[in-house]
Design brief:
heterodimer; A: about 450 residues; mainly beta; 5-stranded antiparallel β-sheet; 5-stranded mixed β-sheet; 2 helices; about 50% strand; rod-shaped; B: about 250 residues; Neuraminidase; 4-stranded antiparallel β-sheet; 1 helix; about 55% strand; globular
Chain lengths: ~450, ~250
């Protein structure tokens, strides 16, 4: 009966369904199927997926009423039938061949009521390959997971001989730059009936992204895949050279990493100045190289601290205006912020000198008022014996020059003041002067009496 | 006496109504690109301002005057960084020194020491490989000179160029500077060292290799890190020796 049907199929390849043709598909190649189809040898215990394709070559629609595959070891993939194929339309049909032991196998492929081909397959004895508890079919893909690049993870595979006779594994090879092995095995490897033998493959991606490779066991090839991940930069923490700051200081900032970095990366460190209410920005608050208020930091693999232009820290000035300097660190996957307060302070005196001219005494003071609020100056002159010269302390309240100066300049609170005193008497009697400078915080004086040379 | 002092301070009180306020000035420096920058500010708080002078290969400022060497000229500057005189000069760097009032006094370039005299540059009859120069009184100069691998400190007569005395600067090598009081500034290991005329030393940690020293203000010395690195400012005062970094930032 089968023989007659096959003969009919050979004469009229698709019989009453002359517009339908059966193809076998390998990759992208389609081959018309004749009266007999012989797939490649299959290892006993493996599963071979055979892909057929039914094509409608006629000028009108054709109906696929039924498809059957009859034969031990063969299974038809799921189909929803009947199925109407329009002109030039096609229908894919998967047939699985899973031989339980070595030897010849056959099955018939019936399309509607016509046996269109006979599948003659051969199962050969060989070892099966498993990954974990999953037996692998040739061509299948084994996903070894995802790990950070430059790390490695072993994967254990198992060779099993399900046959009643010994088999020998001639070679196992691994290809693909991210995969190494096999280890724990040597060849040829005899494997007794029913025996198993493990071996390892290592997934060690060097670059990020999906890695692919191949595991070949004698003539059977399995696809290896895995994902290499770029390790995240460790979290960075802003560290100040001193936890407290005052005006007119140069300090250093550094970036400590939570752990040794596995990768190289860059980030930015910015500084922002928030002056106390009512005061302007201060141009002197800046980093001391690069951009005024932004720095690029670099991290190399193996670093435990970020670098600024190759240096482990980065210098900046605190300026001469009270407020808060806010540092913001931005890395690819983390950030940090540090607020460095600069408190309002007494007027700072950097230099204080006295000059004696023919008919004048000059008092020169360079310093800063980080509140921009100098409201009173006081001068007490002394004679050569150290006695206060009457009338004693001379006060100047709300000197308008300071108000005008601080409102007009962009240099923060730093200033130099020269107060000239015309002398109508014997100026040589005056040996020195104490100066008091009062701002909103209090009154400051030079550490020593200013002497007139 | 009492009457005279009373008259004095009535005058003082009136004058205080008009104190002169301005941004403080430190001096000037030559930036890494050869532009001359005015340095405003106080210790630890500097702001640079371009003077408009470029192509400087050497520069020095006393606090009241400056001297600059370009590839073709020596420029004399006033306290406001304005050019008041210029002299033709061959290419190459120069060393400068000022007198006790801060006025330009000496220049050294192309192997020759010059003194500013009579409105011009007058060559001194001496030649050598000078590393640093300073004025020593009205008629003499002090020169740190390199002989083989050693530095010597000479005192020269400006009139005739004769060496009045000389001594080996033991332990000093590489870049050096002379302060107006004759003290030598040099690098020893990680430290900047100021050695006065008695041999007493003061040190401040720097941790840098030095390319050159240049005077940048009344009591300030500019120090350029080698390899075109950072610019530092050394403040030398009788009661202190402090090192700061000078900002060199892009806008």
């Amino acid at each position: 009966m089968i023989g007659r049907a096959i003969l009919a199929a050979a004469l009229l390849p698709i019989g009453a369904f002359a517009q339908l043709q059966l193809m076998q598909v390998s990759g992208t190649a389609e081959t018309p199927v004749g009266a007999k189809y012989v797939p490649k040898d299959t290892v006993s215990g493996d599963t071979l997926d055979i892909l057929f394709r039914v094509k409608n070559l006629g000028s009108g629609p054709a109906i696929v009423q039924a498809i059957r595959v009859d034969g031990t070891g063969f299974t038809l993939g799921g189909l929803l039938l009947p199925y109407t194929l329009a002109t030039e339309a096609e229908l894919d049909v998967h047939v699985s061949f899973s031989p339980k032991g070595p030897g010849p196998y056959s099955a018939t492929f019936t399309l509607n009521t016509i046996v269109v081909t006979e599948i003659d397959a051969t199962a050969v004895p060989a070892a099966l390959v498993s990954f974990g508890t999953t037996q692998l079919a040739p061509g299948s893909t084994i996903n070894l997971g995802q790990i950070e690049i430059l790390n490695s993870v072993p994967a254990t595979f198992t060779l099993t001989n399900p046959n009643t006779t010994p088999v020998s594994i001639g070679a196992i090879t691994v290809t693909g730059g991210a995969f190494r092995g096999p280890t724990g095995i040597s060849f040829p490897l005899p494997l007794a009936a029913g025996a198993s033998y493990p071996f390892q493959i290592t997934f060690a991606p060097q670059v990020d992204g999906t890695a692919t490779g191949a595991l070949t066991v004698d003539q059977r090839t399995f696809i290896l895949t895995g994902l290499g991940l770029v390790p995240a930069l460790p979290k960075g923490t802003i560290i100040m050279s001193s936890p407290t700051a005052a005006s007119a200081q140069q300090m250093k900032v550094s970036i400590a990493l939570a752990s040794v970095s596995k990768v190289a990366g860059t980030g930015t460190l910015t500084m922002q100045f928030l002056p106390v209410l009512g005061l302007p920005d201060d141009a002197a608050i800046q980093f001391l190289s690069g951009a005024k208020r932004a720095a690029t930091i670099t991290i190399a693999a193996g670093d435990s601290a970020a670098k600024f232009g190759g240096q482990p820290d980065f210098a900046f000035q605190t300026g001469t205006t009270a407020g808060s300097i806010v540092f913001t660190l931005t890395l690819s996957n983390s950030s940090d912020q540090y607020t460095l307060p600069v408190a309002p302070a007494l007027t700072g005196i950097d230099t204080a000198t006295g000059d004696r001219r023919v008919s004048d005494l000059d008092v020169n003071i360079a310093g800063f008022d980080n509140t921009h609020s100098i409201s009173q100056l006081g001068f007490t002159f002394y004679d050569a014996k150290g006695n206060v010269v009457q009338p004693g302390l001379i006060r100047v309240v709300s000197p308008p020059e300071f108000i005008q100066y601080f409102s007009a300049n962009q240099a923060g609170g730093m200033f130099t003041m020269r107060a000239s005193f015309p002398v109508t008497g014997d100026a040589s009697q005056i040996s020195g002067v104490d100066v008091q400078v009062t701002n909103s915080v209090g009154t400051a004086s030079p550490p020593q009496r200013i002497r007139f040379p | 006496m009492k009457k005279r002092l009373t008259a004095l301070f009535l005058s003082c009180a009136a004058a205080l109504a008009q104190p002169a306020i301005s941004p403080p000035s430190v001096g000037m420096v030559r930036d890494s690109g050869g532009s001359v920058q005015a340095v405003n500010g106080i210790a630890g708080n500097f702001l640079l301002a371009d003077t408009g002078i470029s192509n400087a290969v050497s520069a020095a400022f006393s606090g009241s005057a400056g001297m600059i060497k370009t590839d073709t000229e020596v420029l004399i500057l006033d306290a406001s960084y304005q050019v008041t005189a210029r002299y033709d000069a061959p290419g190459g760097p120069a060393l400068f020194a000022f007198d006790g009032t801060g006025a330009p006094a000496l220049a050294y370039y192309a192997g020759t020491l010059y003194r500013l005299h009579g409105g011009g540059l007058e060559a001194v009859n001496w030649s050598g490989d000078a590393v640093a120069i300073a004025l020593a009184g009205r008629h003499s100069a002090v020169v740190v000179v390199r002989r083989d691998d050693q530095l010597w400190k000479l005192r020269l007569s400006l009139a005739g160029g004769e060496i009045e005395n000389e001594g080996l600067l033991a332990g000093v090598s590489g870049p050096a500077a002379l302060l107006s009081d004759g003290a030598v500034v040099y690098i020893d290991g990680n430290d900047v060292v100021v050695r006065d005329g008695t041999g007493a030393e003061r040190r401040v940690a720097a941790g840098i290799q030095v390319d050159y020293f240049e005077r940048m203000g009344n009591d300030w010395l500019a120090i350029r890190e080698s390899g075109g690195g950072r610019l530092f400012a050394l403040r030398v005062r009788p009661d202190g020796l402090d090192l700061y970094q000078v900002p060199e930032v892009s806008q």
